[in-house]
Write a structure and sequence with these properties.
Strand order of the largest sheet: 1-2-5-6-7
Helix content: 25-40%
Bound molecules: zinc ion
Shape: globular
Largest sheet: 5 strands, mixed
Number of domains: 2
Structural class: alpha+beta
Radius of gyration: 18 Å
Order of helices and strands: EEHEEEEHHEHHEEEHH
């Protein structure tokens, strides 16, 4: 089941209050079109009925793709500083649906799924893409650390984030995305072999990888933000 609620979205340009359908839950097994819309970045985009300005609702939803073994709790991008609280909340929701507090049926479904927490549409898209390309999401975060280390001037302001945006058998493309507009500011092409090399050099990366043990938020920035609670 995919669940939508009616919500109000105020236009930033003209102030018109628009009635919009806001998604609370996406089931990609039943609605592959919604998964596609997330990938092509059209999901939950609206236009102000009065002046035509583009509106994008911030996510607050659960995404389930049982066939691909992925469950993601998605929160607005700018709330990442409160990730500790959000991760605790996501874990409770996961536990009730597919974890240790779930029904036997739910628990057995949960065994073949990864539980994740993502902040923002671009982050959710990245999780889906990562899966699609057969990449390991922890390894991808470690790869980002090497990309940032090698950049002369990484735009590390808290207004941008580094995200996987596309890839193929040879190359991965990572872009710095501006949070407010989801616009790409700059990007780098990384050989896919760099991802595989991190997997191969297991001992060198063991400590960094351990940061993500049992984590729902597989995002390198968990090392950056202390995680203010409440
Ligand atoms: Zn408007």
């Amino acid at each position: 089941m995919s669940i939508f609620h009616t919500a109000k979205a105020t236009c930033g340009t003209c102030g018109h209050v628009n009635d919009v359908e806001r998604v609370a839950s996406v089931n990609a097994d039943l609605r592959p079109d919604l998964r596609e819309a997330i990938l092509d970045r059209t999901f939950q985009r609206e236009v102000c009925a009065k002046c035509g300005t583009a509106l994008r609702l911030q996510p607050h939803l659960t995404y389930l793709d049982f066939a691909r073994g992925l469950w993601v709790m998605v929160e607005p991008a700018e709330t990442i500083e409160r990730w500790k609280q959000a991760e605790a909340d996501a874990r409770r929701t996961w536990d009730r649906s597919f974890g240790m507090r779930a029904s036997p049926h739910g628990r057995s479904m949960g065994l073949s799924m990864r539980s994740r927490l993502a902040f923002g549409w671009t982050a959710l898209r990245e999780k889906i893409l990562c899966d699609e390309l057969g990449l390991d999401d922890v390894t991808l975060e470690l790869l980002k650390l090497t990309v940032i280390r090698d950049m002369a001037e990484a735009p590390l302001a808290d207004q941008t984030e580094l995200r996987l945006v596309s890839g193929d058998a040879k190359t991965l493309r990572l872009d710095w995305i501006e949070l407010s507009s989801e616009r790409s500011i700059s990007g780098v092409q990384v050989p896919r072999a760099d991802h595989d090399a991190i997997t191969a050099a297991a001992a060198d990366w063991a400590d960094a990888r351990a940061t993500f043990d049992g984590a729902l938020l597989v995002d390198w920035r968990r090392m950056m933000f202390e995680g203010v609670s409440a």
